[in-house]
Design a protein that fits this description.
Helices cover 37% and strands 13% of the residues. It is globular, with a radius of gyration of 21 Å.
């Protein structure tokens, strides 16, 4: 049973699950204060060794050898269903590879100081990105808050790692000589209104089911053949999965993977979980028109027009 926090706690008062290694068994999970994980120099030498490693494969191996923790709570096991008590915090990753268009990325931590809901910001273990800890008002809305946070950051031109939506998301220990800490951070309590889910709907819903399936299959085929990523940021990917789920239900699961697979950040298990949720919630009011809308924006115009002659977009 999940226990919600009764009062606002800071990182100095919050206990979370700690993993001596990412390969440890469920019974080996420990508890540690969040501040001790975020502010300690205990792992400095190991983290700096990761950052100094020039070989990509060896760097990955060194990173995987680091201890880890689960910022969003105390768990009986590493799976999401093992959550026993939510910490009241959500953690987001801002990776350099996802934000190549952001000017002065190295100064991003200074910009984050302007966001009132950020309690902590520091360098990631690899040193190529940042992660932020944010207090949230209602643990039961963890995933909904993430969607809103991703939307807010995207409006500022910043892409956050979509896999952070998972409440059991692991975080490798890190080291930052000058982290940003604000124990007076505002508690984040905003979710996207339902009407936003309909913003990307377009014409084209009057075509027959056969025509819809044919156009959809043609576009998915082109995406696979040309290796085109139409998923964009988290919000766009979420809308696309909802559009497929609302139209095709379980039959569209494999196509959802085909579309998602072209993204650099594709994760099979996360796509499975997200698509299942989209089906369970009826596609959040999105229609197949949303899929066509995003496909038109990302595909070559001439190619798209040839694939969808009978649809007005």
């Amino acid at each position: 049973m999940i226990t919600a926090i009764n009062m606002r706690k800071t990182i100095f008062e919050t206990q979370v699950s700690y993993l001596p290694s990412v390969s440890c068994k469920d019974g080996e999970l420990q508890q540690m204060r969040l501040a001790d994980l975020l502010l300690s120099d205990r792992w400095r030498a190991a983290v700096e060794a990761v950052r100094d490693e020039a070989d990509t494969n060896r760097q990955k191996e060194a990173k995987q050898a680091l201890p880890a923790f689960m910022p969003s709570g105390l768990f009986s096991k590493k799976a999401a269903e093992g959550l026993q008590q939510h910490s009241g915090f959500i953690c987001i990753d801002i990776d350099g590879k996802d934000n190549k268009d952001v000017e002065n990325f190295a100064d991003l931590k200074a910009l984050v100081r302007q966001i009132p809901a950020v309690e902590y910001c520091g360098q990631s273990a690899s040193g190529t990105g940042y992660f932020c800890i944010m207090p949230i008002a209602d643990p039961s809305k963890h995933r909904d808050y993430f969607r809103a946070i991703a939307h807010d950051f995207r409006r500022c031109g910043i892409v956050i790692d979509r896999k952070c939506i998972n409440v059991n998301r692991l975080r490798f220990v890190s080291y930052d000589a000058s982290p940003y800490v604000n124990t007076g951070a505002q508690v984040y309590d905003y979710t996207l209104p339902t009407r936003d889910h309909k913003a990307a709907q377009v014409l084209g819903r009057d075509v027959s089911d056969v025509e819809t399936r044919e156009h959809f299959a043609a576009i998915v085929g082109e995406i696979e053949a040309s290796h085109i990523d139409i998923t964009g940021d988290y919000g766009q990917w979420f809308e696309i999965l909802c559009a497929i789920a609302s139209t095709f239900g379980e039959e569209g699961r494999e196509d959802a993977h085909k579309v998602s697979r072209e993204a650099d950040c594709y994760d099979y298990e996360e796509t499975e979980r997200q698509y299942t949720e989209c089906i369970r919630r009826g596609g959040y009011d999105y229609t197949i028109g949303t899929f066509f809308f995003h496909a038109k924006r990302e595909l070559d115009a001439h190619v798209f027009d040839n694939l969808t002659k009978d649809i007005e977009i």
